[in-house]
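seq as requested:
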Amino acid sequence: MDTKSFNSFYEAFKSKDKRLDGKYFMGVSSTGIYCRPVCTAKMPKKENCTFYKSAAEAELNGYRPCLTCRPELAPGNAKVDSSKTILKKALKLIDDGLLEENNLQELSLKLGVSDRHLRRIFKDELNISPIDYIETSRLLLAKNLLTDTKLSILDVAFASGFKSLRRFNASFRDKYKMPPSHFRKENNSVKTDTITLKLGYKEPFRYEALLKFLEHRIIPKVEKVENNKYYKTIAIKKGNIYVYGYIIVANNKDKSALEITLSESLVKVLPQVLSVIRNIF
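struct tokens:
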């Protein structure tokens, strides 16, 4: 990155420019963390900063997610703005949790392209490999669950797409140099049959207008809008069976995030549930 571009990014992050949220991240060498442009922490010195196009690229370079701005809540507009249709489809497949393993051949087959071509697209657009993106997506979802829910670490591992607790723990130690339990907040609340987590969005976000739009199009006995919240019962197909449950969506404007409450039955298809909510909102 040339000096002029670097200075522009530095000033944008310094001014907390929300337009860059989800598009770029800043690695801080003095702390080993990476941040969103909206991070409220003190701005580091220029010589300690490096800018990246994605969370996965920052993690590939050895940085771990900031606990203040929480990169896993970034809206992810870089993928929306991508000029490559194939990349958009690939990212959606990954975010929807449709890949059972970190299998590049499986992903390429679904997209109708070769492994080599897909790797080249990821490298050109995001400066990372598809496997790097898959791994980081799963780790960031897991961090969100560890921070915001009371799910057991085993449940978090499987809900975020890992096939074994051993692999889950190894990935955290490899990427973040610490165990998953480090991200677990002290929580003395009573266990319930629901979980609540956050899904970040980019301002401006017209939540009330969206609710009004949905209210005029609700499916009776399936959806409703009440007390500034959206309720919906859903069925997600997993293999040959359907998983049933419900979601409640509220707005946390202070955090620029939707607060998603869902029945515990939906944890096993959590990536698909989050994809449904993204599509609605």
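The first strand starts at residue 25 and ends at 28.
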